[in-house]
Specification:
It contains nine helices and five strands. With 284 residues, it is an alpha+beta fold. It comes from Chryseobacterium flavum.
């Protein structure tokens, strides 16, 4: 009996040690993972070391990213003449290598407003602010803010690098796909990854643009002393305007009283009824 058990044990040991006995093909494992989940499958066993190395390299690259600071500002300046102030602003913008992204002018009875959206290189932002504060006019308000987006930039960069790694693996899998179903599923995953990569790259470009070029909202404001454009500033013209406004007010009052003429017709009738009621009361 002991002689029989020993050969059987030897055969079992050989079968268990065979590395290819129960191993399934690599692509079948990945296809099953893709079909059963909507999320990305883990990388194949033989490329896991490569993927890990690439991810570590991406992490090291993002660790060296410089600080990403977005600067924004708002200024409101009261000026004597809009046109003159605008010429001064243009000279300052040109000197600081900036440009006007948006311009809007408003002319009302009370004031003139020129609103400018200015983009300026990050390094020239402070110099631009100081130039506008000196010589243009009276600064009514100023608000400067800084936003550190380094963490967001690093996070998006790492995820983008990992998505590119998975995209290459899917493209390799597509070359060896055996069935139409597998091809369609892999192509769908590739399409989704490409869309996500485009969004991530667009976000990084937007952050880089806001970091490299700061934004300043500049408003030039001129208050109008009088609403009349034809009369001159002075005591005589103001006196005439006052008389005109007084006469206009009197005419408006008179026209208002005239518009009440139906009520005036009722007054005699009301007085008649009141006197009649009063005399009847005395007789009683």
């Amino acid at each position: 009996m002991g002689k029989l058990i020993l050969p059987l044990f030897f055969l079992v040991f050989i079968n268990c040690s065979n590395p290819g006995a129960d191993k399934q093909p690599l692509n079948a494992d990945l296809m099953e993972a893709i079909a059963s989940k909507n999320e990305l499958p883990p990388p194949p066993a033989e490329v896991s070391k490569i993927s890990s190395t690439s991810a570590i390299r991406a992490q090291k690259n993002t660790d060296t990213i410089s600080r990403k600071i977005i600067k924004n500002g708002e200024m409101r300046i009261q000026v004597g003449e809009i046109k003159k102030a605008q010429n001064q602003v243009n000279d300052i913008i040109k000197k600081n290598q900036a440009y006007i992204e948006k311009e809007q002018f408003q002319n009302t009875d009370m004031d003139d407003n020129l609103n400018l959206t200015i983009r300026v290189p990050h390094k020239n932002f402070d110099a631009l602010i100081n130039s506008f504060s000196d010589g243009i006019g009276s600064v009514l308000s100023k608000n400067i803010s800084s936003n550190d987006v380094t963490e967001e930039y690093t996070d998006v960069s790492i995820k983008l690098a990992n998505k590119k790694i998975y995209l290459e693996k899917y493209r390799d899998m597509l070359k060896s796909a055996a069935t139409t179903k597998d091809i369609l599923e892999i192509q769908e995953n590739i399409r989704e990854l490409e869309d996500e990569i485009d969004v991530a790259e667009g976000r990084l470009r937007f952050i880089d643009d806001r970091v490299n070029y700061s934004t300043l909202q500049l408003s030039l404001y001129k208050e109008k002393i009088r609403s009349s454009a034809t009369s001159k500033i002075g005591f005589g013209s103001r006196f005439i305007d006052s008389l005109t406004e007084g006469w206009n007010s009197f005419v408006s009052f008179l026209l208002g009283m005239i518009s009440l003429w139906p009520f005036f017709l009722l007054i005699p009738f009301i007085v008649f009824l009141w006197r009649k009621w009063k005399s009847h009361k005395k007789k009683a």
